[in-house]
Amino acid sequence: MQTNFFERLSSLNVTADFKISIQKKQNDAWLVSVLVINDKVEDDAKNAIPPMILQGTTHELDEGFFPAIEMPAQKTATLLSSMQQYLDELETAKQESKMMREKEDAEKKQKDERSKKFEEQMKKVAELEEKEKYGEAIAQLPKPDKFPEHTEEIKNKLEELKSKHGQLSLL
């Protein structure tokens, strides 16, 4: 006896696994349970997908088994594939988000370090200015190209120190 059961199963073009349970009932009746699964899907929601239950005589099942499971099996396989794709994309988004946070944290740290260096240099300038060592204070001013966010402040301080330095030499 030759059957084409596996050819027909293959022709469904379903990327998933089938768990089929067959139980003999009374009076030539059969109960068939077909569960479409994909163990590669990591979402536990896959466990909520119920099996397809078919019941009938041998003749009814021979004639109607594949037409009855074709559409639900394809939809279930598509659902399982979408579930895994969603989880993969979610993980990618998490990784990208983590990388963005790390990048932002690194940029903030670098900016904080530059601000700290700037403040330290400006503190030295203020100390020299208090001692009326304007030439040395001018030499200690931070370079605008190293601290572009403070360019205006540096220029203003330079002008202020130059004017004080010029007044000192006139006395």
Write a structural description.
- It is built from four helices and three strands.
- The N and C termini lie far apart (121 Å).
- It folds into two domains: 86 residues, no CATH class; 58 residues, no CATH class.
- It is of the alpha+beta class and 171 residues long.
- The protein has a three-stranded antiparallel sheet, covered by helices on one side.
- The mean pLDDT is 88.
- β1 and β2 form a beta hairpin.
Task: Please supply descriptive tags for the structure shown above.
2 domains; alpha+beta; 4 helices; three-stranded antiparallel β-sheet
Helices, strands, pairings?
Blueprint: H1 5-10, E1 17-24, E2 29-37, E3 52-57, H2 58-130, H3 134-140, H4 151-170
Antiparallel strand pairs: 1-2, 2-3
Q: What oligomeric state is this?
A: single chain
Number of helices: 4
Taking the alpha carbons of the first and last residues, their distance comes to: 121 Å
Low-confidence stretches: none
The count of β-strands is 3
Rounded average pLDDT = 88
Radius of gyration: 39 Å
In summary, what is this structure?
The protein has 171 residues and is an alpha+beta fold. It has helices at residues 5-10, 58-130, 134-140, 151-170; strands at 17-24, 29-37, 52-57. It folds into 2 domains: 5-90, no CATH class; 113-170, no CATH class.
